[in-house]
Specification:
It is built from 10 helices and 8 strands. By secondary structure, the protein is an alpha/beta fold. Strand 5 and strand 6 form a beta hairpin.
């Protein structure tokens, strides 16, 4: 176990980032900071930020850089993340966010940025069968027979398709990924911080590749 890992996991929607980040956060005992989960929690709580973000999320858009930078800046300064490190999932999503993050973390720089690589054709298939617990956020894959109602094994909550997993919204998010987020690969590669990990295959194998990439960067 390596204490204090500060990592960014990049990758397309549906690349399996969320599930792998949860495993990595348990493995390295660091908080998993998912900006999508933070926004969905705010939306459920009905806060002003949450209600604004929900409209954008359901349409497959991106929440403004300033809002996101404020949110993450505050989160990484909390004592758990400040002392142990963190795994950032869903942030940064634009070059402006990456530049702000570099300023925020100037005194405690990141160890590695990992791109979990899964091509667009494959993620489209995966997202259509993705189901998520509304309460705890655990991800599931729907098979040919979908239980109804579907109860979460972890917390007993309701498992359903995400409101933003409609074909239109997914396509919009994937387009935004290509234009706004994929430039981060070149950005971090130039800084010598990037490792690309093949995200295709059994989740256990992908997890092993991710851990190897983290170890190699430390
Ligand atoms: P996915 O990767 O499946 O699109 P996430 O759970 O990471 O989903 O994010 C859901 C939504 O939350 C995004 O589509 C976007 O609207 C918003 N969001 C999350 N993180 C960011 C971010 N860093 N910048 C802008 N919007 C964000």
């Amino acid at each position: 176990m390596i204490p204090g890992a500060r990592l960014i996991i990049l990758g397309r929607q549906g690349a399996g980032k969320g599930t792998q980040c949860v495993r990595l956060s348990r493995h390295y005992v660091v908080p998993h900071i998912s900006t999508g989960d933070m926004l969905r929690t705010s939306a459920r709580e009905g806060t002003e930020l949450g209600l604004m973000a929900k409209q954008i999320m359901d349409a497959g858009g991106l929440v403004g850089d300033e809002v996101m930078i404020g949110l993450v800046g505050e989160r990484v300064r909390k004592p758990d993340a400040d002392t142990r490190g963190y795994i950032l999932d869903g942030f940064p999503r634009t070059v402006a966010q990456a530049e702000a993050l570099a300023r925020i973390t100037a005194d405690k720089p990141l160890h590695a940025v990992i791109d979990l690589d899964v091509p667009r054709e494959i993620v489209l298939e995966r997202i259509s069968s993705r189901r998520v617990c509304r309460d705890c956020g655990t991800n599931y894959t729907a098979g040919p027979v979908v239980p109804s109602p579907w109860i979460c094994d972890v917390c007993g909550g309701d498992v359903a398709q995400r409101a933003d997993d409609t074909p239109d919204s997914v396509n919009r998010r994937l387009d935004l990924y290509e234009t706004q987020t994929s430039p981060l690969i070149a950005h971090y590669s130039k800084l010598g911080m990037l490792a690309v990990v093949n995200g295709i295959g059994h989740p256990d194998h992908v997890f092993k590749r991710l851990c190897d990439a983290v170890e190699a960067r430390r």
